[in-house]
Write a sequence for this structure.
């Protein structure tokens, strides 16, 4: 999250991909850095137990939200 915010503040379109248990931490980090509206994308948790097919579905599902965030930056 911090890296994405740092890149974004440096003019590089950025977002973060987090998993569901880290949503609150992402919100708090952004708020603490003065960017409460910083947008990020949330994937299901956990990811380490998933197979390649799951990752392919997630990539398809999350690609558009990521692109929309990056294009607004």
């Amino acid at each position: 999250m911090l890296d994405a915010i740092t890149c974004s503040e440096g003019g590089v379109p950025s977002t973060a991909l987090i998993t569901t248990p880290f949503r609150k931490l992402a919100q708090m980090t952004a708020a603490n850095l003065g960017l409460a509206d910083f947008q990020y994308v949330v994937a299901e948790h956990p990811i380490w137990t998933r197979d390649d097919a799951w990752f392919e579905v997630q990539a398809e599902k999350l690609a558009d939200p990521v692109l929309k965030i990056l294009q607004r930056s």
Q: What stands out?
A: The longest strand covers residues 17-19. The CA atoms of residues 34 and 48 lie 32 Å apart. The mean pLDDT is 95. Residues 52-72 form the longest helix (21 residues).
